[in-house]
Amino acid sequence: MAPIPTPPRPPDDDRDSYTGLDAASAERRARQRGWTHVRALPPGVIITMEYVAGRINFEVDAGRVIRCWFG
Fold it and tell me: pTM to 2 decimals?
């Protein structure tokens, strides 16, 4: 039987460092730090909760990041 693959380790990053940034600056910073998937979402949007290694999520209101989470 084939071994279960190990997902790549996400970048070592502080999600709180994105709060308050404008969305474009937050996306640039995330990509520079090694995130392969960057997702900006409006407040209250319904999303699936599957975990994606290498993804950072931003909740953006009025062009600013108000919350950030990984996966």
Answer: 0.85
